[in-house]
Amino acid sequence: MKLLVVGAGAMGRWFAERVATADDQVGFADTDPDAARAAVEDVGGRVVDPESDERFDVVCVAVPMPAAPDAIEAYAPRAERAICDVTGSMRDPMAAMHEHAPDCERLSLHPLFAPERAPGNVAVVTDNGGEVSETVRERLTAGGNDVVETTPEEHDQAMETVQARAHTAVLAFAAAADDVPDHFQTPVSAGLFDLVEQTTGGEGRVYADIQAAFDGADDVATAAAEIADADADRFVDFYERLS
After folding, report:
1. In the chain, pLDDT over 70 holds for what percent of residues?
2. Considering 96, 124, 150, which residue would you say is the last residue of a domain?
3. Same domain, yes or no: 116 and 199
4. Is the pLDDT of residue 48 over 90?
5. pTM, whole model, 2 decimals?
6. Three-state DSSP class for residue 237
7. d(Cα 132, Cα 44) in Å, to the nearest integer?
8. Which domain holds residue 218?
9. For residue 23, which of 73, 135, 178, 242 sits 20 to 30 Å off, Cα-Cα?
């Protein structure tokens, strides 16, 4: 299988490592040539000129979410059998693949973890599946991942809670919290501080893209305001409603 990964960041490298085998040919294309060269040094394969018209069995788009539709449009003509993305949202990429690669197998994949925490759950939408799509799923499963079939609508709605709302809640706690000696920590507060460390250990731009792509942050702000403004009886009602 001849594979082109568009976007030589952590997620593109993860896809190449988990899906390609020693018998496959892997190429990396990136607007930053240094990033493509670094990916080749790390994963193997070769650098592919973004301006070339070379074709591949599979094109995987692994760019930031806002850039996904344009990247899919640009690289779809270079896919002979299948095109997929690992960008993190699904509705817009799937619509772009359907429009620009109508004759190809189409997959949208979202690893629900950072690459350094692999393996884990991988959400998958399959559109116009076939042999290549099945091979990708089989190789991800063989690598210890749990592949979960979904729809673009179900996935993106879930991301409003598991990403946009969750990140908002954790970052709001981080912004409001004071440093506290360990001997004062409760199981709840210690868990929250662990989440703060995990959440703030990534790239701010990635989190900004998530907040822009999915609704949910305003809901957390509204709920926090309701708690802050509640008297004792209203707080009890609020608490029991969630219990």
Report:
1. 100
2. 150
3. no
4. yes
5. 0.91
6. helix
7. 21
8. 154-242
9. 73
Domain shared by 143 and 82, yes or no: yes
Report the phi/psi class of residue 216: left, alpha or beta, with left for phi > 0 and alpha for psi in -120 to 50: left
Alpha helices in the chain (DSSP H): 10-19, 33-43, 68-75, 91-100, 131-142, 152-159, 166-176, 187-199, 204-213, 217-229, 232-242
- Tokens describing residue 163: 């990403």
Residue 15 in tokens: 């896809």
pLDDT of the residue at 222: 96
DSSP 131-179: HHHHHHHHHHHHTT-EEEE--HHHHHHHHIIIIIIHHHHHHHHHHHPPP
Joined tokens for residue 208: 């900004």
Same domain, yes or no: 62 and 144: yes
Question: What per-residue confidence (pLDDT) applies to 81?
Answer: 98
Query: How many Cβ atoms sit within 10 Å of the Cβ of residue 174?
Result: 15
Based on the fold, state whether residues 146 and 230 are members of the same structural domain: no
Contact 128, 97 (CB under 8 A): no
CA distances (Å), 59 to each of 1, 16, 135, 188, in order? 11, 11, 14, 44
pLDDT tens digits, 170-199 = 999 999 999 999 999 999 999 999 999 999
